[in-house]
Amino acid sequence: MAKVDTPICASCGRIMVPREYAVKFSCPNCSNVTIWRCERCRQFARPYRCSKCDFVGP
Ligand SMILES: [Zn+2]
Ligand SMILES: [Zn+2]
Questions:
Q1: Nearest ligand (C-alpha, residue 56)
Q2: Which of 7, 25, 43, 51 fits a 20 to 30 Å CA distance from 33?
Q3: Ligand 2: distance of its center to the CA of 1 in Å?
Q4: Positive or negative, the Cα torsion across 49, 50, 55, 58?
Q5: Which ligand sits closest to the CA of 47?
């Protein structure tokens, strides 16, 4: 069986739905972590936190 990495929203911790319009980007501080954000958190500009360097950003 192939291993699938399920992306989790960095803001609300919800598992991403594939059809959802989510965004992913590298952490602006350490750029080592790919941060996912769901559509809803993007809309409301909820803060996210990097799991590696604890960077918090909008
Ligand atoms: Zn979210
Ligand atoms: Zn980081």
A1: 2
A2: 43
A3: 31
A4: negative
A5: 1
The number of the ligand nearest the C-alpha atom of 50 reads: 2
CA angle 49, 50, 52 (to 5 degrees): 145
Give the pLDDT confidence of 17-38 residue by residue, as tens digits.
878 788 999 999 999 999 999 9
Q: Residue 33 has which token pair?
A: 């972590």
Rounded to the nearest angstrom, the distance between the alpha carbon of 27 and the centre of ligand 2 is 5
Q: Name the percent of the chain lying above pLDDT 70.
A: 93
Q: Is 43 helix (H, G, I), strand (E, B) or coil?
A: helix
Record the pTM.
Answer: 0.79
Q: Of 29, 33, 50, 53, which Cα lies nearest the Cα of 11?
A: 50
The alpha carbon of 17 and the centre of ligand 2 are apart by a number of angstroms equal to: 24
